[in-house]
């Protein structure tokens, strides 16, 4: 499967504070790095960190964007994120509702292209 810059992606991120989650979402939308960011209530995460298993209650953010905007999105998140190594992972959107995908494309072509020019 060939990956293109216009490929739609979903980006998963986590943080431990609700205010931080909202600030990240607002920044991504303000900078036109995402068409939508959903924030889900705290869940439990278990992970390896500095040689031992840790746990945290975290908010899950899911951003809908394009691969061509991913580098900017990562920079934007790292500017405000409190974690030393924030989780920022992207997965391709392989298909979905035609109306939703058309909306996503329209928002990101119009807004995302303008954001890169400024």
In short:
By secondary structure, the protein is an alpha+beta fold. Helices cover 37% and strands 36% of the residues.
Question: How does the SSE layout of this entry go?
Answer:
Blueprint: E1 8-15, H1 18-30, E2 36-49, E3 52-66, H2 70-80, E4 88-92, H3 98-117
Antiparallel strand pairs: 1-3, 1-4, 2-3
Care to describe what's here?
With 118 residues, this protein is of the alpha+beta class. The chain has a single domain, classed as Alpha-Beta Plaits. Helices cover 37% and strands 36% of the residues. It contains 3 helices and 4 strands, in the order βαββαβα. Strands 2-3-1-4 form a 4-stranded antiparallel sheet. The protein is elongated and about 45 Å long. The C terminus is likely disordered.
Report the CATH topology name.
Alpha-Beta Plaits
Q: What is the second-level CATH architecture?
A: 2-Layer Sandwich
What does the oligomeric state look like here?
single chain
H/I helix tally: 3
Strand content: 35-45%
What is the number of E strands?
4
Task: Please list the strands of the largest sheet in the order they lie side by side.
Answer: 2-3-1-4
* Radius of gyration over all CA atoms, rounded: 15 Å
Shape: elongated
Structural class: alpha+beta
What is the distance, rounded to the nearest whole angstrom, between the alpha carbons of the first and last residues? 32 Å
Number of domains: 1
Estimate the helix proportion, in percent.
Answer: 25-40%
Mean pLDDT comes to: 90
Sheet with the most strands, sense and barrel status = 4 strands, antiparallel
- Uncertain ranges: 114-118
